Amino acid sequence: MMTNQTENHHSSQKNKRLSDLVDIKTLQEILDAFTTTTGLMANIVDVEGVSIFPRKGIKKCCKFCRIIYSLEGGKNRCQAAYKRAGKQAALFGEPYIFRCPSGLIEWAAPIVLNGEHVGTIICGQVLMWEPEEFFWIELRKMNQAITDDFEELFEAVEELAIVTGNQVQASAYLLYVVANYIMKAGWENFEQSREFARQRTLYHAEIENRKTREEQVDKTAILSLIDEDEIILQLQQNRNKAKAYLEGLISGLRYEARQNPTQMRAKMTELLVMLSRVVNRMGLAVAPFLEINDYAISQIYQTTSLENISVIAAKSVDVYLEQLEASAVKPENPNILVMTDYIDNHYQDNLTVEAIAAAACLSPGYAGRIFKDQMNMPIMDYVLKVRIDKSKKLLLNPHYQIQAIAKNVGYEDAGYFTKVFRKFEGITPTQFRKVHKR
């Protein structure tokens, strides 16, 4: 029972996200324009197959659909089909063409946010061929469970458009790209608004804390909030504690800036420079952190919004902590270093545990045990990670085709490479390239 409640809650969160984040009016206008231009009906459903629009909100709905929906059980049958088709489309990361329970052609294009399937575009129904005798027999058989009056259904079928496979694919891809672009923009706006609100909450909490402290401390005492030794101490804690400390530092510095953007920029810049010095004192390579600073500081000086400056600084802290975690994964066993170096230099080859173990003069069993103990992952998972990391860099270059990238990182089959990439990243290589398009 608890599992069902959890699943239902998770499902309702997805549905809420879809309806809350998307600009419903804009999507409705796009679907209306699509229908007017092509004569094809388009709808958007949640992960359960239920339309996010009121039924009367769809500008055009084919007569066949209206009849099916009016029959007992027809609506539920359609929604179940949309749910299944949406899952299949999300699984493959591309539009999915299917036959609806009533025997006509439809297609589903997945809406994906942060690797999570949150909804589906459904388009159809259409015919892809001129109906013949067998089609009418099959149509009657597929719908006999919900009606025994087929005359009106047959008349409605004759009003449907006959489209080619190319037209189906083109219209599906068009709606897929447009809707996902709008959803992504809506999600980013939602995340930014939520982060703004969080930063404001932290700032107001800091104001109250400061009021209390200033009543208790000698007003002539001048103390710096930024203390290198304290930052090092905090960074040695777990990530959540370190993040809470640094975000508190950002709120404190904002308070000291007294709502002055110029002072706020200077204080955030000082904090980032201090963090890079701390990293250097910790004995880590400072170059990746300087890149973080360069980007963040350039963003800070392009805005006058205090909330924006706070958010940029907070996101930089997140990146710092991620980089610190990555830098901290250093194998103590020299045999591990030999194996990781071998993988880094031969990831394009058909690697096996035996070959990797042999490079360190170890047995496969022993090599696998010590590797997992030190690196917290099996050897072949590390191989996959290296290949995916390399492929992501290549995907940023639009001149490389997916097939070439797959081969470059050790996969002869581009389809298999796509499945592996999607498993690791939550999106396909093509989607990754679109999201990170220069």
UniProtKB/TrEMBL annotation:
Keywords, comma-separated and alphabetical: DNA-binding, Transcription, Transcription regulation
Domain of life, source organism: Bacteria
Recorded GO MF terms: DNA-binding transcription factor activity; sequence-specific DNA binding
Keyword DNA-binding: yes
Gene3D superfamilies for this protein: Homeodomain-like (1.10.10.60)
Location of the HTH araC/xylS-type domain: 337-435
Keyword Transcription listed: yes
PROSITE patterns reported for this sequence: HTH_ARAC_FAMILY_2
Protein name: Transcriptional regulator AraC family
Protein source organism: Acetobacterium woodii (strain ATCC 29683 / DSM 1030 / JCM 2381 / KCTC 1655 / WB1)
Upper classification of the organism: Bacteria, Bacillati, Bacillota, Clostridia, Eubacteriales
